[in-house]
Design a protein that fits this description.
By secondary structure, the chain is an all-alpha fold. Helix content is 61%, strand content 0%. The chain has six helices and no strands. Helix 2 runs parallel beside helix 4 and helix 4 runs parallel beside helix 6.
Amino acid sequence: MILAFFNAPQQCVLQPGCGITGHLCYHFFHANFFHALCNVWCLLALAFYYDIEDWELLLAWLIACSVPSVAMASQPTVGASGIAFALMGIAFHKVARKRYYLTWIIAMVALGFLIPAMAAAVHLYCFLVGIAVSLVLKYCERQSRIKRK
């Protein structure tokens, strides 16, 4: 939250052609305090509601760090919402009402494509990779249950 009060140095933003520093640091800077507050609220809500573990949060950060240049906006991108969308995907196997959950996330991503300042392609990428991870986690859980029997 403290970094919300500072402008992100050029090397700490996500944009086509950015270096590894941009990929690793863009989550920690935000456009303004409200942007930081929304991202923190979303991350905390996900963490507590779906009982997110530390390794899942780290995995979400790694997913958000891996955004390919094809999904990057032309303007510099900052914020932790990529991590939040990756967590939404990772938590998918824990969700009871999957269709309802997906409907809301699809609506949020679609809305993001209509608002010019949002990095909707980054959100979509992080969510889809998170879903893929969730499917792998679900498969591994099922395999471990079968082996225990």
